[in-house]
Structures are given as C-alpha cells and as structure tokens.
Amino acid sequence: MSNNTYDYQQLAADIKRWGKELGFQKVGITDVDLSAHEQALQDWLDKGYHGEMEYMARHGMLRARPAELHPGSVRAISVRMNYLPAEAGFAKTLKNPRLGYISRYALGRDYHKVLRKRLKQLGDKIKAAFDDTDFRPFVDTAPILERPLAEKAGLGWTGKHSLILDRDSGSWFFLGELLINLPLPVDQPVEEGCGSCTACMTICPTQAIVEPYVIDARRCISYLTIELRGSIPEEFRPLMGNRIYGCDDCQLICPWNRYAQLTDENDFSPRKDLLAPELISLWQWTEEQFNSQLQGSPIRRIGFDCWLRNIAVALGNADPDVSVINALAQRSGQVSEMVQEHIDWALERQQRGVAKTTQQLKRLVRAVEKGLPRDA
C-alpha cells in the first residue's frame, strides 16, 4: 500500500495494539528530534561524568541524532516492558550483609534478547501491513538517547534519578525503540510528577545524583560494579554494602513505585542461585561455574574477575566473622592483581572487625567476673 492511501492514524492504533499483544505494557510514538538534549549531553561528557565509558564520548552527539543512526527514520516507536516479579524480596536481601544484592533487572534472562526479539516481531507486523516500511530495533545496544525518546512518546517523565517514571507503573520496566521511516502521528509527553521530592537523591549511598536529573556515573554503584573494569575507588567500597551487581536504591525509595506493576514474563523471574544468594557461596564459584550458571544472564558480560572483585568488597563489608576471613584467604594469591587488591582490603577490614569484637567480648567477660555493670 502506498503512502498516499494508507491511514497512518489507523496504523498507529494497530501498532499499539500489536505491541500490547507482544507483551509491551505501553507503546508510544514520537518524532526523532532530540536537539534539545544535545547541550545537556555535551555538558555531561565535558564534566567527565561518563567515567571510563569511553564509547559515550566516542559516539558524541550521534546519541541525540537517531536519523543519523538509521538514515530515513522519521519516527521512533518507544515501548516498555515490566520486569518486577512477585518474589523480588528487596528489603530482605539488603538488610542481610551475608547475602549478595543483585539489581532486580539482572536476576532473570538478559532483557536485551527478550525485548529485541519482540521489537523485531513488531517491525515485521508493520512491514506486513505496509511494504515500504524500513525499521531498526534498539534495546540499549546502540548510541541512542532512549529515555528522552520515551519521554517524548508519552511513556512517562524523567525522574530526578534520570529514570522514566509513570504514574500507574512506577519505574520497574525496560525500554526499547523501533526507528521507522513512516510519518506516523505522534503522542504527547505526560506531566512531570516528582515535584519537590528528592528521596532518590537523598537515599543514594554514594551521592551519585549530583543534581536533579544528573548522574555522575563515576560515583554510581551500578557503574562501579558493572561498567568499571579496574579497581573500585576505596572511598566507595564501604558505601557499597552487599550490592554486588547494580543498585536499586533510588527506585526502592521512589513513592511512585508503590504503583509498580508485576511482570508476567517468565524470562524475568529470578534464577534460583541469584535470589538472595549467600555471598560465601557465590565467592566459591569457579570460573566454569560462573559461565555456566550465568548463561544467558546480563551479569556474565562483566567477566569473572569483576564478579570476584564485587563480591570481595561485599565480604569486606559483611559483619566480622572468621568464616568470611577463611573464605577470603582461600582465594588469596590465586587471582589477578586487581582482584587481589580487593581481597586484601576486605581481609584487613574483616580482621580489624574481628579483633574489635574480641576485645569487646573480653571486656564484657571481665565486667561479669567483677560483678560490674556490663557496659563498664
């Protein structure tokens, strides 16, 4: 069917219906003009907030110019898919320093594969209806500003933590885009809903939200545990607690997430070995176990060394315990220089903690023997 005879209003309605049939909770359409975001992106890069993510600077303004990324594109179809499972158990894990906290999005199957497959199916449906369709799917896999596109497409507003928020669904969802060459009618942005709330900024363990809507990735625990490939700066290690892959604190505290919708995607259900896992158990994995247990998981991409690095920090932050010291000591001298640095840090911290606890116990025993108050 030709451009002159096709009803684009009807096609847009069909696209949204097809998208929901494919498992997307919301579908919006926008133009691809992101020029209003170029200066903010350049300022962010100039301040070095991207850290060691050199690809952010390498692609530069291409991220804000989707039409250059896929020539001929005039619209972006933005989609979102919920990933919150009923058995998330956030608080339980964070409150137990012997367990490892893994960001909710990474507990199941790699979302890139799930969303990209569905976006490709959506594109194929559009092409079946309109032969001249040219499209390209994106799921956080190419230099594109997906959150501004989602905001322009009416999927939500940008929160002060820089994530997209929705009044009915909070922020526990993935985003994806389909760049397309058809001049479809566009949707309108929704009203911002954060108001004066700064809960996400206050709760951030490392104060990575340096101003509303601006993240210094170099301070962000998600960056430190996932993107960073070298040593984690010592100043941030104690603040990481038991977070071994990513961080959800800014989402956990957000008032809008009381309305978060549970996912019905089995692929996003937590793997048994990753739901509230014992740190020492994860620490004892071999590289072969790491690769096999995390087959199809986004975690696997950080590699075994960074996995051990992150767990070493968490063990250092755990309550002082001889069993933790023994576990750390068993790997000492058998790892890379980078991992060894974090083991040494964790051992020193644990040993100091055990010594302090021992001294406290000795004082308590002496007080009891002398009949003195127990806090003497």
Automatic annotation (TrEMBL):
Listed Pfam families: Fer4_16, QueG_DUF1730
Entry keywords, A to Z: 4Fe-4S, Cobalamin, Cobalt, Cytoplasm, Iron, Iron-sulfur, Metal-binding, Oxidoreductase, Queuosine biosynthesis, tRNA processing
EC number(s) from the headed UniProt entry: 1.17.99.6
Entry-linked InterPro entries: 4Fe4S_Fe-S-bd (IPR017896), 4Fe4S_Fe_S_CS (IPR017900), QueG (IPR004453), QueG_DUF1730 (IPR013542)
Gene Ontology MF term list: 4 iron, 4 sulfur cluster binding; cobalamin binding; epoxyqueuosine reductase activity; metal ion binding
Biological process annotations from GO: tRNA queuosine(34) biosynthetic process
Domain 4Fe-4S ferredoxin-type: 182-214
Main subcellular localisation: cytoplasm
Cofactor: [4Fe-4S] cluster; cob(II)alamin
Function: Catalyzes the conversion of epoxyqueuosine (oQ) to queuosine (Q), which is a hypermodified base found in the wobble positions of tRNA(Asp), tRNA(Asn), tRNA(His) and tRNA(Tyr).
Record text on subunit structure and interactions: Monomer.
Protein name (database record): Epoxyqueuosine reductase
Gene behind this protein: queG
